[in-house]
Predict the structure.
Amino acid sequence: MNLRDTFDVPAPAIVLAEGEFGKKGGKTANGVVTHSEVFDVRGIVDSETAGQTPADVLEKRDAPDVPIVECVDDALDIAPEAEALVIGVAPAGGQLPDAWVGDIEDALRHGCDVVSGLHYFLGDDERWSRLADEHDARIHDVRKPPDEDALRVGDGSVDDVDADVVLTLGTDCAVGKRTTTFELYRAAREAGLNAGWVATGQTGIMVGAHEGVVVDRVPADFTGGVVEDMVKSVGADHDLVFVEGQASLTHRAYSSVTLGVLHGSWPDTVVLADDPRRTRRTHFDRFGVDGVEKEAELVESLSDAVVAAVSTWGDPETERDRHDLPTANVYDEGGAEDLLRAVRGELPEIPRETAGGEA
Amino acid sequence: MNLRDTFDVPAPAIVLAEGEFGKKGGKTANGVVTHSEVFDVRGIVDSETAGQTPADVLEKRDAPDVPIVECVDDALDIAPEAEALVIGVAPAGGQLPDAWVGDIEDALRHGCDVVSGLHYFLGDDERWSRLADEHDARIHDVRKPPDEDALRVGDGSVDDVDADVVLTLGTDCAVGKRTTTFELYRAAREAGLNAGWVATGQTGIMVGAHEGVVVDRVPADFTGGVVEDMVKSVGADHDLVFVEGQASLTHRAYSSVTLGVLHGSWPDTVVLADDPRRTRRTHFDRFGVDGVEKEAELVESLSDAVVAAVSTWGDPETERDRHDLPTANVYDEGGAEDLLRAVRGELPEIPRETAGGEA
């Protein structure tokens, strides 16, 4: 899925973040507000933080100054030009709350497309698809896997891609893989490189990856093939392709997705995202975190890639000494640029510069 | 899925192996004919080998002496007591050939259940489900994944299972993992152990695994969880659980399934199936085979399991010297018993003997 080609980018949009804006459960909403290249967010719906500013809620001074309001109707009053409602949180308990039903109806009646990361596919429900049709709006269920007959197993054809491929993996879930991938991509563009990126989760698709599929929904046999297809597609017109990885090779709950992405993208270099304070896995207290050295050893044993750098949530100086790998924190000024420098140092041919940026 | 509890075992059955009996494409049919514990095969349908004997076609002197005939109608004449038609081949090109349509109709009209390994689910097609209902027959689509709401991600709860878990992995696809798993199970039963087994592919389900799911059809996120659930279920009433693995950790097309099975079953010991003559991967000429040492190193790095033995298609003496691991060929007399001995040597507590067999 590629929302860049679906909208006139950037499209004015409203983000539904009810009850979760600024929290972990709202990470898709938070990401879309702070750095979507597809959507220009004009209103945020969250009754719990309504009236505050994104800078306060996200604790980020440079967060865009967008009003936070109680409901979609209020947001449409402020931003009648909105072309999309982006659902950036999952409802607690999995059922669509009544309030959201009204919010989604209001958006569709206004002619807004609905971009949904819900597990439940709105477009498959006649109630929503009919309402969308009536108002000339579209529903984009970003978690929906490609049709079965478009799926195939990996075949190694990604090896023929001319572009250099950089995959972000990590030592756990929710450790900054998507942010690292995006920041590397941004730094590469700013350095004048012809870079694109591939998302493997919903937030990445919503913030504007050049291709994206929520790979954990794809039948296991096809994980590698679907990633391979995306890398080939983005690699066809970019010199450098950044790929968002998932989970960790040592994460017993999700490792099969991780290895599918590694083998499907068959990267030249890997960047490992890590939170040095974490000892147990997020949501899985039973599982310990194995750490950077173990993950790096496995990546290099399971592929031809070189682990080029660590993207840390800790102090880069301390972590660099611990791991003996180039290390930076992408939330620090210049952090992404440091990572990019380390990555380029490992690439056999430095991608050519297509604009006047510097290496 | 568990066909043991679905039929009065062993159930008289007819196997549809059209065009593929004795060939690689008929491996499900070949397996069901030679060692299903669920079905007692009374007729084989394959117009290409009709009139020959299974011993000749399979080149196995001890293959059961079952008539091979032209069509299901002929088979039903010979074996009117048949309770099931087992579809043990995939049609060339994916479409159901007209001749098979007639064969399936004949079976259902006779009141036979249809056990299908087709990618296309017969039970989802009203044409077939209605005909089955009319004749008091059932359709079992063994490739059908469990319902989405029965799926979950792995959570490590398999660690609480009392039984010892033995997983068969391998250096490639089609290298004897299912046969090795079954032969280990058989040898364990003959040694008086309270053993059960878990299938992860269709043939295993059809030959009588105590639990089975075609895991490559399950959304990638749930591969580990679905295997974990099966091991817990079979482990609840057996001392020893053999698990059929899939593909290989180094197989770029299928590795995500392999790792899901490894992490979901979290075995105590692993047996590696290997064909020493193979240098390129089956169906994937582009990919080289990495071999026993590499696979063993990865298994032990990605889990707490010990690689206990190699199940080889080559000469056990030669291979034992090459790999410095206990090695046997399950097609040799006593081969499975040799493997079982090696496996039991690695288990912390030797499973208790529940019958008068010997260790």
